[in-house]
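REQUEST FORM: STRUCTURE PREDICTION
Request ID: SP-0412
Submitted by: Lab K.M.
Chain count: 1
Length (residues): 125
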Amino acid sequence: MRYITDRKRAVGKGSAKTGTEHYWSMHVSAVALAFMVPTFLYVFGSALGGTRDEVLATFSRPFPAILTGLVLVVAMRHFAKGATVMIEDYSHGSLRKGLVMFAISLSWVITATGLYALARIALGN
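STATUS: Completed
RESULT:
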């Protein structure tokens, strides 16, 4: 029989410094995405299959352009935080650091590329 205290079992299992903040951040972004994504899919679906000029006209309007930008930014931040937690749970050492840097960098590259493309479309270039 092993006599280990609860504290001894918890040592090395991580700390609770930012767990609540991360929890609420993920839930708030998930709720925001739950409302934004269906609206975005409706706007995107109505533009899908149109001519180039029709698509440019759709995304030149303020509501579709702002909605697309918001969906892109919120979704990529949600992805980065979720991927970071998953990587931290299942990998260790320098592989963990490399994968976290890759996931965060990938989300920022996708965000920057998407916002650049959206700005080009919205400004008519």
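NOTES: The radius of gyration is 21 Å.
Reviewed by: T.R.
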